[in-house]
Amino acid sequence: MSTTPHTTAYRRDRLWLAAMVHRVSGVLLAAFLPLHFLVLGLAIRGEAELDGFLQWTKSPLVKFAELGLVLLLAIHLLGGIRVLLIENMPWREGQKQMATIAAVAAVGIGCVFLVALL
Amino acid sequence: MSAVRLYVWQRLTALLMVPLIVVHLIVIIYATNRGLSAADILDRTRGSVAWGLFYALFVAAASIHGAIGVRGVAREWLGLRDTALDRLMWIFGVVLVVLGLRAVYAVVAT
Amino acid sequence: MSTTAEAMIDVRVWRGGEEGEYQAFSVPRRDSQTVLDIVTWIQRHADPTLAYRFACRVGVCGSCAMTVNGRPRWTCRTHVSKVIEDGRLEIGPLANLPVIRDLAADMTPFFDKWQKAEGTFVPSRTRHEPLETISPDSAERQAADAAIECINCGVCYAACDTVRWSPEYFGPAALNRAWTLVNDVRDTGNLKRLAAAASSGGCHNCHSHQSCEQLCPKGLNPTASIAGLKRRTMQAYIRGEIS
Ligand code: HEM
Ligand code: HEM
Ligand code: SF4
Ligand code: SF4
Ligand code: FES
Questions:
Q1: At A35, which CATH number?
Q2: Domain tally for chain C?
Q3: Which member of B101, C213, C226, C238 has the greatest number of CB atoms within 10 A?
Q4: What domains lie within chain B, and their CATH numbers?
Q5: Reported ipTM
Q6: Which domain holds residue C54?
Q7: Chain C interface, Cβ < 8 Å to A
Q8: pLDDT tens digits for chain B (110 residues)?
Q9: What is the pTM (predicted TM-score) of this model?
Q10: C95: domain CATH number?
Q11: Strands C88-92, C65-68: pairing kind
């Protein structure tokens, strides 16, 4: 028997999920940024240093992670625009469709990246 | 810092980053398509005032936006309050700015 | 009526306070049955000690809200057919509020926050002055009317995860009320109200999940009201009226 009365089926909702995706993508991007800056900073010690790292990024696993980053950036960007529109424009119907369009477009950007990669 | 103030800074930097990230995504895809090498990247950036400004602005906006964002998440999901929150926000923001500007310097000025 | 083939519903009802457990009841199915009918049937026929709250039974008073299969609902106007899942109903007290007993939640924090959000009318005229005439068609009045039908049921408050995760957050209902008054041309309390909306419990906590909007039984849209407050507080902040 559960010891708390509160269950949360209302979370099975596209807009609730969209908010969570936005949050998690934001946190992951924030976690990635220091690493990104450290890698770029390698160029201080010369091109070879940075290139050495970029050679490592040629491994399929790292490419996969890069795809993840592009997806995160795209979904956070489009989801963020969606939030800015809600907050600053007159209300409009079709919020769920907007969230879906943002997700589909982000996957589309991911696909373009994949094509560019291969 | 007051809630409105944090909100205004977070949303203004978000708005500012919309064009920056669109450009960044295009550059990422273009650079990856060409095989992503240090020579390639540094060719573009070295000595370029335009890219220097672009990335410096990007670093500033992302640091402010990200630090305030992380503060909000820590407030709700880690239950941090007041000084602990502000400390987290400032430390994270300053680390990002310092590392970020160092990176810009690395790819533009060396 | 046949007694053997009578259709029954598996109902689980929260018993206890903050701690307790769900208790199972078998309740006969009726046509056009509401969730409140189910709870009342249990109290009358199975366990008279069951605590719950209601008054009008017609969607006016806002006192009958409970959590039904994981979503907050006004139980007197919620048909069982709309919310039943696999023949089962789970009924608990409203979330994000202290539990008094069984299905009765303590609404005190909810109403306290209406005060904190300056959700009270501040008249510009005294009772000795003539009534101000307001055209119902004016843009201001329509903006105020858009969010005015709130019955204080607490459904939106219980559906808001930001309230859950940030207990000082005023929540959708109180801010929706504040937005109504911001748009009311007869009111003079806006500076204090915007300052409250911009404080740490105010509108900037909201992440536009729209759970409140989706579940409000009156079809109101607190997300849009709160977005309005975000714009007005931002303007006031930029003009230096609040900090
Ligand atoms: C959180 C947001 C960001 C993400 C997800 C991101 C992602 C990426 C990715 C995947 C690449 C491809 C090459 C590599 O992996 O090194 C890249 C390149 C790069 N990034 Fe970022 N980045 C972000 C923010 C920034 C910021 C704020 C700066 C500012 C300094 C920056 C500067 C660069 C530069 C200079 C390159 C090389 C581009 C070129 O080929 O010319 N990035 N970024
Ligand atoms: C075009 C660029 C971006 C836009 C339009 C944007 C937009 C937004 C918006 C509107 C929010 C508020 C969401 C809410 O309160 O529910 C937000 C939150 C956040 N953003 Fe961004 N963002 C962008 C880029 C970034 C970047 C590069 C990072 C990484 C440093 C980032 C990290 C975060 C974090 C950690 C949050 C907090 C999430 C939350 O409170 O749920 N964002 N973003
Ligand atoms: S939109 Fe705002 S008020 Fe409504 S549930 Fe989400 S955080 Fe709460
Ligand atoms: S806004 Fe809707 S859900 Fe919230 S208290 Fe008012 S009537 Fe109930
Ligand atoms: S009993 Fe009055 S609204 Fe349900």
A1: 1.20.1300.10
A2: 2
A3: C226
A4: 3-108 (1.20.1300)
A5: 0.95
A6: 8-105
A7: 14, 18-22, 67, 69-72, 90, 92-93, 95, 99, 159, 161, 207-211, 214-215, 221, 223-224, 227, 230-231
A8: 899 999 999 999 999 999 999 999 999 999 988 888 888 899 999 999 999 999 999 999 999 999 999 999 999 999 999 899 999 999 999 999 999 999 999 999 98
A9: 0.94
A10: 3.10.20.30
A11: antiparallel
